[in-house]
Structure of SWIM-type domain-containing protein:
Amino acid sequence: MVIGVAWLLIGISEEREALGFSGVVVDGVGLGSDRSDKAPQKPSHHQSFLHFLFGKNFERATRIDDQRGVKRISGEPSERSIFQVNSFQSRRKEYFCFAEHYCACYSFFYDIVNKGEQLCCKHQLAARLAVALGACIEVKVSDEQLAQLLVKL
């Protein structure tokens, strides 16, 4: 079961059909529009698995998503994209990341590349969750503008 949940989250950008799980996350983290007036519920077993797999990064990623802190910047006409994710601690600081492969944050290099202790950073996880939940702010730019943005990384 843990492997199935991990696969669901890791492959979430390719497997949008698997979004039956998203309702559990929406209810658990309060992203649903009708959740604001209801009392918090006991975490589901799915959330427990995700918390086990990703630890503190799962909690922090859901807070970033709660604050609508994920933008998907897509180039047109190529449809290539990169995510711009707010910092967990400050909305003024933003990190660019590819949800599956890279993030410009310090934690990505320290915890993932250097130490190998985490599967992904909170910004990558927030981007994956936002895609699954339809919570990304979509920004369309030209391919040239996207290329200029990527050169600065």
Q: What stands out?
A: The longest helix spans residues 122-133. The longest strand covers residues 70-76. The CA atoms of residues 11 and 100 lie 9 Å apart.
